[in-house]
Each structure stands twice: as structure tokens, then as C-alpha cells.
Amino acid sequence: MFGKVLIANRGEIACRVIRTCRRLGIATVAVYSEADRDAAHVEMADEAVLIGPAPARESYLKADRILEAAKATGAEAVHPGYGFLSENDGFAEACADAGIVFIGPPADAIRAMGSKSAAKRIMEKAGVPLVPGYHGEDQDEALLLAEARRIGWPVLIKATAGGGGKGMRAVMSEAEFAGALAGAKREAASSFGDDRVLIEKYLLTPRHIEIQVFADQSGDAVYLFERDCSIQRRHQKVVEEAPAPGMAPETRAAMGDAAVKAAQAIGYVGAGTVEFIVDASAEGAGAFYFMEMNTRLQVEHPVTEAITGQDLVEWQLKVADGEPLPLAQDQLAIDGHAIEVRLYAEDPDGDFLPATGRLAHLVPPEGEGVRVDSGVRAGDEVSIHYDPMIAKLIVHAPDRGQAIVKLRHALAAYEVAGLKTNLAFLRRVAAHPAFAAAELDTRFIERHRADLLPGPQPVSDRVLITAALHRLLVLGTEVTRRAAASTDPHSPWAAADGWRMNAVSHVDDHFRDGEREIEVRVHFRGGDYAVAVGDGPSLPVRATLGDGGRMTLDVDGHRFTARVAGIGARVHVWAADEHAMVERVDPFAFTGDEAAGGGRLVAPMPGKVVQVLVAAGDVVEKGTPLIVLEAMKMEHTIAAPVDGTVDAVHYAAGDLVEDGAELLAFKPTE
Ligand code: ADP
Ligand code: ADP
Ligand code: MG
User: Fold this and answer.
1) pLDDT at position 478, please?
2) So which cofactors does this thing need (predicted)?
3) What digits encode the pLDDT tens for the residues 286-297?
């Protein structure tokens, strides 16, 4: 086996490859761009080499830089992951020329499948069924139109060099053809430098079912069953599962054989995926057609690993090292059911466009049969430079029903905050009855749009009550801690048997949810509470606080667990299976006597100064943030109550302040 492997990728797939190498005792070399100096994959690898600036074109796509790094570190092989250089025949060849093993298929096999049209011609010869269509070299427009007519509307125009859904246009009728063709060609030319297209019959209710194949250097090949990747947005996968629901054993065998035939037809070696489109319409009767072959490890390979109990990266390393396939076809069997969902930094309500930002809070779920593959940690940035995938969540259970239950629980426990993600959308997919009923085809999201993308929802009372009680309970803990730590028996803190606020009848908390301002009033009832949201009724509430912001609540007889995290004035609440964010409007932020013109800005509660944003002499407008205080495990920004001048700042970052301490002297403008 190789002694050292370089991973020419980043993110979750680089981390995933490193994990297997480590288990097999193989040393690892990461490569990284300037944007990734502190990335997880760099930290995980035994060595790491800087290969260039942030843009992929200047780093992760720089074949020569990567090969230099391999030579300099003495790596014997390169694993390309997926994306980037994984399907670049020139890179595979350059590796071979440099005497470094490319962990993937031979350059010829990549080339053969690189053009969707050429791939189809090869498959046709091998007797693999194709979607009715045209995949010839002749690109004459009149000919393309004539072919489209022959195929029959609707048709799908695809860039032959395509990938990632680019250069693809559905054409519903002849009137749209010329415009769609021009659009597809333009997009193909700009994305791939090649404007050639092919035309296919556009199936209206298809399923995307793909076969995982594996071949070794002696020409032996097996299939590791199928994955159903029908739940897609923008023709790109978000949910994948194995096995495909409702797959008949004879269809599985027929598709598996066709896929193995496809691999052998091009002298394939290593891991590959043969993608099929399956006609799910009543007339289509489950006919399957070859779509394309991806000559690499696929994003969704973990579902196959789960149901076969195999490590596909280990298989890749062994085959690349010249070993035979670890198992023969009759030694492979399906165990249970696995589902993967892709957690993306994106905005489902904004056409699923990618989002960027800092992952201020990130707690992945854990448990038996739950796997999370991720390349980021809490605090990391999702930048504009790379793929916005945050993580993949994979669940495995004895059957599909149990896998869905596990998926729902794992998604409910997933905590992400700081940027827009598709998490709530994934939760709705997992909870949808049509998903439970396995009514899968590529229009799933479109068909259930109203349920899956309901738009911004007002936060529930449950969330507001949780946020308000969290603040009180954390403050109570803090006071009790201070009482215990106090050596002065006459200190007011020491006198607190629980909490001096018990002496008052109620506390108000204020939140903003979009345009809505909401007051939450908490009355103390012995150790319990009565809480009213806005003009709503006062509900009996019990609440306890555990570690790390975890809470148990009982609101009017409904018991649930919750977690709260504060990011600035934003309060994120995960209550039962709900996640919502509200903004706390802090009515204590300015307790100076404005009427008297007194300029005292005081700490609303005991805490620590984390940031001082102004200096003495600064002239500020109303609302300008002045000091950021951390208290009750949340940040509170003290802002200028009115236009004015900062006369003096009494604390520096890091200082601890008492409740009521004057933070800065402030003079309002006349
Ligand atoms: P890419 O290179 O972007 O992966 P594919 O050819 O694999 O392109 O197609 C991507 C997706 O587009 C498929 O998973 C499927 O959902 C849809 N698709 C492809 N071909 C057809 C077709 N003939 N009819 C309907 N949908 C199709
Ligand atoms: P699959 O067909 O295997 O599901 P996709 O086409 O959905 O794969 O995703 C592959 C894409 O992932 C690449 O085209 C690229 O945009 C992106 N990608 C490449 N490298 C990484 C990485 N390290 N982490 C996340 N995404 C990546
Ligand atoms: Mg594809």
C-alpha cells in the first residue's frame, strides 16, 4: 500500500479521504489555497502545502502546483476527490508522466466519458439503453430542429461537455426551440469552452437512479447497487438514498449489468457512477436509459457505504495500488436503508442561490446509524470561492421507514446559525408524507413547493417563551454562582437564596421578528412561571437549564427540550423540531436619565466587555454600536440612545463589569 497520499481537494471530501488513509496507516498531504490556511482539511492532514490564492483557478485547479507539492513531499499517489481536477484527463496523464499514481480511472476512460455525446455512442455500441435522442457530431441548426421534431416534444437540450446542470434547457414546444438552443450554446461556450449540444426526449416524471460500479486493473468489475437521487433542485441533487424504493430485483440486476458493461466498454478502473434516468410515468413502465457516467467518487457515495458495509475510499486505494477488488459480485449484499441529505449554505426561498457567511454556531447530530461528513467547524467561513456545501448527513437503519424517523430526529438535532442554510427545507422534505410514501421523481420539490417552501413563518410563542426563559435562567445561575463565590456575607449577591428577581413580580423581554415587535412577560410563581406573549393568555411554564444552553421546558402541559444560542442581538432557538431566530430589543440598553441630560450608559447585567467600538471624543449618531458586552452567554450591543458625543470610555475589552456599572460617559447633542 502507498506510504503517503496527497489529496488534491478541500472541504468534506478531503477530510473524508484523510480519515480512511489514517485508518489504513497512510500518511496524508493536504493542499490549500490562501483562503483555506486554517481549514479543517489542512489541520487534519499530516502535512499541508500552500498552492495559491483563493480562486480555484489559481489553486485547486493548478495541476502543476499540485504535482510539485506531491513531489516535494514524496507522495506516491494523488486522490482528486470530486469536482476540481477529478475528471480532468490531462491531470490524470500528468500524474502518470510524473510517476505518481492518480487514484481514479485511466485518462482514456475519463476522456471517453467527458463528452456526453461520445459516451452515448460508446454505450449504444455496448448495448446499453439510451434516452431517445440525437447525439451526433453535426451541429447544423436545421438538422437539430429536425431531430427534435423526430424525437417529439418536449425535448431537453444538453451541453455535450456539460456538468452541474449548465447548458441545459428544456423545450416544451417548437416555438421555444431556437431561443433555447441559442441559450444552451451560449452557456455551454462560456462554461466549458465548447458549445456543442445533444438533444434528448424530455421525460416529465423521471427518477434519477444511478449505479455505483467498481473495476480493478485486471478488468474485473462489480456494481454496488443503486442510489435514488430524484430529489433535486436546479437539476442538482439534495437528497439521495439507497436502495431505490420499489426497485425490483430483476431491474436492479439489469441496470447493474448494463453499468458494468458500460465500465468494461471503456477499460474503466476504480470507482465510477453510471447515471440512469428511469421513466416513472404510467406509460413508461420503469424503462431505464443511460444518461452519463461520472468517472470519480460521487458526493453521495456514503449511502452505498452504509448499505454495503464497505469503505469505498479504501477500495479506491487498493485498486489504485494494483490489488484485486476486495469483494466479488456474489459477496455483496444490501443491508437496510440509507438516506443522505446535503446541508448547503443557500437560500431556498431565493431560488436556492448560494449563501455565504460565518458558521457562528454549528452542532451536528450524533448517534448510532448517524454519520456527518463535513469539512467545516463552528467559526469557519463559507466563502464565495468554493462549493457552499456545509455537510452531508447520512442515516442508516434496517428499513426505509426507520431511516426516515432517524433522519427527522437527526435534522431536528442539527444546530446551525450564522448564515442562511437549507436545513429547514430539508426538515420539511423529511417530514413530508409524499417522501414517506416514496413518491419520488425529479419534480418532487416543484410539486410540493407550497409545503416545502412556505416562505418566512412568524416565530411561534414556544420559541419566544424559550428565549425569554433562557435569559432568566442563565441570569439566575450566574447570580447563584456569584453568591456561592462571594466571601462577603453582606454582599447582596450572597443574600440571594435563589435570585433577587424573585422579589419582583415579573420581568419583560422584547423581541423583533421581521416587522413585528413582541413583548414577553414572565411572572414568577414560586419556582415556576406564568408567561404571556403579546396580548396572549398567561401560560403556566416550568423550565430548567442544563449544560451548554440546553433547556427542558413545559409550556401549558407540553414538555420539550430546547437549546438557545446568542449571536449579537440575535437569539437562535431550537425548540423541539423548530429552529427560529429573533432579535432581542434590549430595553435596558440605555438606563441613563435622558430627561436630565445625564449621560450614563450602564451595564444592563453583569458581564464581560468583548469589544469597545468607540473612543473618547467620538461623535456618534443615535443607534451607533458603542460597546459589546457578553452576558448570559450572549452578546449585547450597547448603542447610542440618541445623537451625542462619547466623553469617556471606562472599560477595555476583556474587563468584567458589574450590573449597573457605568460603561462610558455620553453627552447627548442638544
Ligand atoms: P449533469 O452533468 O448536470 O449531472 P445530467 O445529464 O446528469 O447532467 O442531468 C442532470 C439531471 O437533469 C438529471 O439528474 C435529471 O434530473 C435531469 N435530466 C437529465 N436528462 C433528462 C431527461 N432526458 N429528461 C428529464 N430530465 C432529465
Ligand atoms: P455528484 O454527481 O457526485 O452528486 P455533484 O455534481 O452534485 O456530484 O457535485 C460535484 C460538485 O461538487 C463539483 O462539480 C464541485 O462543484 C463541487 N465540489 C468540488 N469539490 C468540492 C469539495 N471539496 N467540497 C464540496 N464541494 C465540492
Ligand atoms: Mg449527472
Assistant:
1) 64
2) biotin
3) 789 999 999 999
